[in-house]
Write a structure and sequence with these properties.
The chain is mainly α. The protein has helices spanning 7-12, 18-31, 36-45, 50-62, 68-74, 77-92, 94-110. It is built from 7 helices and no strands.
Length: 111
């Protein structure tokens, strides 16, 4: 049975060591947020086995380079802005009058 080289191996003609891939990933994660699945795909394309890729992913998470919650917050700034606006309204009581009016109109509909 002939083993076909991965796409990454065809491009580089060399197999990159797991440690070198880890250092590359850590440097990239320091520049912007990545999710776990992005790195899993890149590691597999780089020629790593699933077990080696999982080991590197766990190491990146343990050392704080990958954080799914932080990744989600980075790509949901509008949702976070709306959430903080709601907290501001709650603190100032601005939204309370609107909610009170809505609950009164619901009570009228029930009658």
């Amino acid at each position: 049975m002939v083993r076909l080289p991965s796409v990454f191996e065809e491009m580089t003609k060399d197999r990159i060591s797991p440690e070198k891939l880890y250092k590359r990933a850590a440097a990239r994660c320091a520049q912007r947020e990545y999710c776990r699945s992005e790195w899993a795909r890149k590691f597999i394309e780089g020629g790593l086995t699933h077990a080696d890729a999982e080991t590197l992913l766990n190491r990146l998470e343990t050392e704080g380079y990958i954080d799914e919650a932080r990744y989600a917050r980075a790509f949901c700034p509008r949702q976070n802005a709306l959430r903080s606006l709601g907290a501001l309204q709650d603190a100032t009581g601005v939204g309370a009058e609107r909610e009170l009016g809505a609950s009164r109109s619901k009570q009228r509909l029930r009658r």
